[in-house]
Each structure stands twice: as structure tokens, then as C-alpha cells.
Design brief:
Length: 173
């Protein structure tokens, strides 16, 4: 049976916060020619909105990482199936992620990208979901903080479904 959905973030709230993050990043990175690295698949919508909220030029790249199986529980294993393509050495790199849950994905990615010797490596995530955090990852820019719940929409999926919803919902029993 399809689960019910409870609205967590509506379009206006997301748009407001993305604009605020864009303004903050514009102040901090304006003269640094950063590379934004989006984490596929979940971050594709946030990344697309965020880069358009920046009023200075950036370069973009993507990695493809997955930690979840087909359902709503994490497998705990991280798979990297697409790496960055731009050289990161001596560049200011900002990871753009949709949601941080256990923190395993970002912990893996930070170590992975750090090997390329960037000038700086920071993280911008839309949602910090902290209750199940297993690894302490430094989150430099956070859109929203939630404690728990299985979230879908605005890039977040449940077994590849519901990613394209413009709002963020919690799936409820
Ligand atoms: C989700 C999400 C993050 C990661 C967070 O991706 O987009 O990348 O899980 O989980 P963690 O903090 O517990 O490691 P998922 O593995 O579902 O792949 P997807 O982005 O392709 O949906």
C-alpha cells in the first residue's frame, strides 16, 4: 500500500532558503572561482536551484554515490559509480548534497576528494537530518535541520520514486 505523505518543506520555504544560501555563498566564494560538486542523484534539483542563486561564475561537476538499497533503509555501503572530471588540485571545492543522514556518504566523499589536494573543501547540504548520525561530518552551510523521518521530494527518493516532487515530504505509516 502506498504510504501517506506529510508536507515538511513547501516550495516557498525551499526557494527562500536557497536564495539565502546563495547570498551567503556569493559573499564567501565570490573571488575564489569555486567548483561545486553535486552528489547524484539526490542533489540534482538543489544544485540546479543553488547555482542559479549565485551571482558570480562557478564551475560544476558531479559524483554519483549511493548508500541506499531499493527501500527506505541504508545498506551502509557506499558505491562510487561516477567520479569528478575536473582537476580539483588547488581549487576551492564545495560539495553540494541534498541530505545528510548517517553521514557515511559525505565522510567517504570528503576523504575521496581530499586526495585531490583542493585549496579548500567545504560542504553545503539542504537538509541536516541528525538523529541517525554515525560519523561527525563538518557541515559548513545547512539549509534546514530535521531530526528524523524518511523524506522524499526535491531530489530525495524512495526506491527511485517521488524524487521529482517540488516540495519535501515525510513518508508516514
Ligand atoms: C542519499 C542522499 C545522500 C545520502 C545520505 O543518497 O542523497 O547522498 O543518501 O545518506 P548518509 O548520510 O546516511 O550516508 P542515496 O544513497 O539514497 O542515493 P541517491 O542520491 O541516488 O538517491
Amino acid at each position: 500500500m502506498e504510504k501517506a505523505k506529510r508536507l515538511i518543506l513547501d516550495q516557498a520555504a525551499i526557494a527562500r532558503r536557497v536564495a539565502e544560501l546563495g547570498a551567503q555563498l556569493s559573499r564567501d566564494y565570490r573571488h575564489l572561482e569555486p567548483i561545486l560538486v553535486g552528489v547524484l542523484k539526490g542533489a540534482f534539483i538543489f544544485m540546479a536551484d543553488l547555482v542559479r542563486a549565485l551571482d558570480f561564475p562557478v564551475e560544476v561537476d558531479f559524483v554519483r554515490l549511493a548508500s541506499y538499497g531499493a527501500g527506505t533503509t541504508s545498506s551502509g555501503e557506499i558505491h562510487l559509480s561516477k567520479d569528478v572530471e575536473l582537476p580539483l588540485r588547488d581549487r576551492h571545492v564545495l560539495i553540494v548534497e541534498d541530505i545528510v543522514d548517517a553521514g557515511l556518504t559525505l565522510d567517504f566523499l570528503r576523504r575521496h576528494l581530499d586526495q585531490r589536494k583542493p585549496a579548500s573543501l567545504k560542504i553545503c547540504c539542504l537538509i541536516d537530518k541528525w538523529e541517525r548520525r554515525q560519523v561527525d561530518v563538518p557541515l559548513d552551510y545547512v539549509g534546514f535541520t530535521v531530526s528524523k523521518g524518511f523524506l522524499v521530494g526535491y531530489g530525495l527518493d524512495c526506491g527511485e520514486k517521488l524524487r521529482t516532487l517540488p516540495e519535501v515530504y515525510e513518508l508516514v505509516e
